[in-house]
Write a structure and sequence with these properties.
The complex is a heterodimer of chains A (114) and B (117). Chain A has 114 residues and is an all-beta fold. Chain A contains no helices and 11 strands. Chain A is 0% helix and 56% strand. In chain A, a hairpin with a 5-residue loop joins strand 4 and strand 5. Chain B is globular and about 40 Å long. The chains are: A mainly beta (114), B mainly beta (117).
């Protein structure tokens, strides 16, 4: 079963607006990661937040993590048409054996209109 | 250039045929993964490997097989037992705790689109 669930499934905004995507997960994690996928391509890593971190920034990206609610959000500020893509969260579930299983959610499809 | 390479980009399979998708990385990563993506859907984990000669089933392993004889290579075979193999297949790798490094990102190949004809 998939660990993460992104919300919303699709988001359409105007250039210059902010885009917020949410991710909920089910089990304890070591870290949570966000990825971007352009249509028909591989995924590209955006940002990683550790389980003991609450907020992280990278350029126009801001990620928050609330482990008590098992949720994360990705904020893209001042969006551009080039930000149009699908965005996925991924988690490494915490296990006693130190498994490296990396599990993805279903993604949010973001469209930024010029 | 360092990276992860999938081949072929497009693959056509006849009913009842086994096919093998290639995934090679020169990043010296211990962990490698295979995912399946259906149109408009997320990534579902098929198999993953944390070290050479070892691999684990993911969430949808039925009808697939893998091997990890070399650190650089993690081929995926789609067998005739997989009833609905048409999909986009993605391979990924990442540094793992074997190297004493935790919390690392995954690097993806460009994918193989498999179609049953």
């Amino acid at each position: 079963s998939q660990q993460g669930e992104e919300d919303p499934q699709a988001l359409s905004i105007q250039e210059g607006e902010n885009a917020t995507m949410n991710c909920s997960y089910k089990t304890s994690i070591n870290n949570l990661q966000w990825y971007r996928q352009n249509s028909g391509r591989g995924l590209v890593h955006l940002i990683l937040i550790r389980s003991n971190e609450r907020e992280k920034h990278s350029g126009r990206l801001r990620v928050t993590l609330d482990t008590s609610k098992k949720s994360s959000s990705l904020l893209i500020t001042a969006s551009r048409a080039a930000d149009t893509a699908s965005y996925f969260c991924a988690t490494v579930p915490f296990t006693q054996g130190g498994s490296e299983k990396l599990v993805f959610g279903k993604g949010t499809k973001l469209t930024v209109n010029p | 250039d360092g990276g992860i390479t999938q081949s072929p980009k497009y693959l056509f399979r006849k009913e009842g045929q086994n096919v093998t998708l290639s995934c090679e990385q020169n990043l010296n990563h211990d962990a490698m993964y295979w995912y399946r993506q259906d149109p408009g859907q997320g990534l579902r984990l098929i198999y993953y490997s944390q070290i050479v000669n070892d691999f684990q089933k993911g969430d949808i392993a039925e009808g697939y097989s893998v091997s990890r004889e070399k650190k650089e290579s993690f081929p995926l075979t789609v067998t005739s037992a997989q009833k609905n193999p048409t999909a986009f297949y993605l391979c990924a790798s990442r540094r793992g705790p074997i190297q004493g490094i935790m919390n690392t990102e995954a690097f993806f190949g460009q994918g193989t689109r498999l179609t049953v004809v």
